[in-house]
Design a protein that fits this description.
2 copies of one chain form a homodimer. Chain A has 380 residues and is of the alpha/beta class. Chain A contains 14 helices and 13 strands. Chain A is 44% helix and 14% strand. The structure holds a DNA duplex (16 and 16 nucleotides).
DNA sequence: GTGAAAGCGCTAACAC
DNA sequence: GTGTTAGCGCTTTCAC
């Protein structure tokens, strides 16, 4: 197969020029006489030459690679040793229904951000190195991150996928751009790309009040320690206050971002006939749980109860009724992160960048009732 | 911020040893006296030293990075320049219902494979470099791949994401592992990881005949130029023949893997009252289209018509009824690809590996009717 | 066990 | 324009 890999020297010899010309011909073609360039190119593809990335990076002091670090806990379960075996058959399995597992959606979120990074990174002629930084303990994570940081020009880090101390360490070596959130004590220090949770929720509430003239709310909250959850709640309160509704009169139910808990809570409401006019949920999963409990209880959405979610996961769209939600531009989060990184790389001493991407309030049946229906079987 | 990055020399000086000892202490700690090792470690974290990946790779002649190359055409549409702007608001949008876009599922497939690669790559202490190899023309693709190939120890390539000629080029430099399919003329030459399309479909058909005693089939086929489609059809025929049904008596409808086309075709069947007992679809999207048309036409699934799909996309599970399908182990495809690559790297001169992952036949309501339902609100 | 020194393959002054 | 040369930061013989 791949015998000895040809180097600049081989190319230079083959073309009868110096290695400098070869290098120039590749980096700055216009600084080389067309004739020699042709010579060199001929030699290059005669030899099948490809420059060594390592050597280039070492000499040029830049790798052209951006690292993406996000920890994703989903995978831990089935992480047994994977052994290659060419089993020669198809298994059969009865597949009983089960609730959509909540963590699957996390994955979706990450996938989208990753995709955005890939996209933008590619557009700019850079490479992307990905690291999910799985289970490891704090020490392992730090080591993992350390390995990566030696290979990249900059590191994009998903919020809370790495301990703050490690972050500081990484940052001594390369620029770091945070996604979604930065260490609270140092918010001003990191470049940051995030999404306007607060404004999205505020807008949603204002819309509900203005359009549907409702004022009997309940809030289904996520975990107390989630910054997202907190910001959404703040936006919720702002929205209410801006319409002269006192947020303190609105009951909060804590469902920890969980379908099941939200479902139970709502069942209970239904049983007690204690149902608010609007149930604002801090994420889509909970909204789905709420909807199911309501529907099963014979409550109509949105005629009896308006339900809203947050995030814009795909289930919010496939559910019946579809859920009004605040959709996060996940893909663009990734793109923005890369763009920010590129700016930082070009301008190492600039002030910290902090950009906030707008969210989109998607009005759907769970709040608006029947919507315009076009394009039914149009899509041939 | 990140001032001068410390090097081995700095560490050596700080610790009062030679750079060789520093290097050894990192690579083969046991070859260094514990005392000096301690000295060195102290110096290392006093300086915040991180070895340069480029230099390591260059000297060690290996990068520890595996490249993943998959072209994904989904993104082309909205690929306008992305500019950073900190728009300070949330947009509102009426969001009318629309069919699940078919390409979204491709993405899902890629995401899963990618995730599998990431997982396995991480488990083995390697890094993963991803490249979606977007729109470029053939020449651009080749160049893109060329850039990547200089930075990695091996390249995992998704079937048909790169022209065959380029593949040959890449292969001169590093080992290449193909995913899903290899160039037909050279199938024996490439390491290959794939899925048993044929066996899966055969098993499915056999199950249907054996369990439901049906023999009145129709086959909804994908595009003629899809190898997957072809293999599935072959499996379909095999299954029938093994049960003494002549495949030639079974009508084929070509719906090009498209929801919409399958939908139209089925509507037509319904209108003409010309409906088979079983509709075997070459992928899930088409099965979904079929189901919708049948359900809208008042036909019961599976009592009147059994419908089956292929792939195991998430919609096959969220649909009502859930679709019996042959699920591909996408995640494991990625893991297997990385494993194969690692083996190849360790053993450059071994015979080409070709492994085939088993698929899983998931029996669900669209063929079996009511299934055991447990775990309803168990998941607290 | 440890140090000196020779590369790894490239880029970028600096001469010519 | 083109060639010469000195690194880039590390690994790895080879002596000691």
């Amino acid at each position: 197969m791949s015998s000895k890999k040809p180097t600049v020297y081989d190319v230079a010899k083959e073309a009868g020029v110096s290695i400098a010309s070869v290098s120039r011909s590749l980096r700055t073609p216009e600084s080389v006489r067309p004739a020699t360039r042709k010579l060199i190119n001929r030699a290059i593809d005669r030899l099948g030459y490809v420059p060594s990335g390592s050597a280039q990076s070492l000499a040029a002091r830049r790798t052209g690679v951006i690292g993406l670090f996000m920890s994703n806990l989903d995978e831990l379960d089935d992480l047994q040793d994977f052994t290659l075996s060419s089993v020669d058959d198809a298994r059969v399995e009865i597949d009983p229904a089960h609730h959509a597992d909540s963590h699957r959606n996390d994955s979706l979120y990450y996938d989208q951000v990753l995709r955005g990074c890939e996209l933008e990174t590619w557009r700019r002629g850079l490479s992307l190195m990905v690291n999910l930084g799985l289970d490891r303990n704090e020490k392992g994570l730090t080591q993992l991150a350390g390995e990566m940081v030696g290979k990249v020009d900059g590191l994009i880090v998903m919020a809370r996928s790495v301990p703050d101390s490690t972050l500081e360490f990484l940052r001594r070596r390369v620029p770091v751009v945070m996604v979604a959130d930065a260490p609270s004590d140092n918010e001003a220090g990191y470049d940051l790309v995030r999404v306007s949770n607060r404004k999205g929720m505020r807008k949603l509430v204002q819309h509900l009040v203005d359009t549907h003239h409702v004022d009997d709310f309940a809030y289904i909250a996520g975990p107390d320690d989630s910054p997202d959850n907190h910001k959404r709640y703040v936006g919720f309160c702002e929205g209410l206050r801006s319409r002269n509704i006192n947020p303190e009169t609105v009951p909060i139910y804590r469902a920890g971002f969980s379908f099941a808990v939200a479902h139970t809570i709502t069942q209970d409401m239904v049983a007690r006939h204690k149902i608010p006019r609007v149930m604002v949920c801090a994420n889509d999963q909970m909204a789905l749980g709420v909807c199911k409990a309501l529907t099963d209880g014979g409550i109509r959405i949105p005629q009896d109860v308006i339900v809203t979610g947050f995030d814009g996961i795909s289930e919010s769209e496939t559910n019946t009724p579809r859920i009004t939600t605040v959709s996060q531009p996940m893909r663009n989060l990734g793109r923005a992160a890369v763009s920010t990184m590129v700016q930082r790389l070009e301008n190492p001493d600039a002030e910290p960048y902090a950009i906030e991407l707008p969210v989109t309030l998607l009005l759907r049946e769970s709040s608006e009732g029947e919507l315009t229906k076009e394009q039914e079987s149009t899509s041939d």
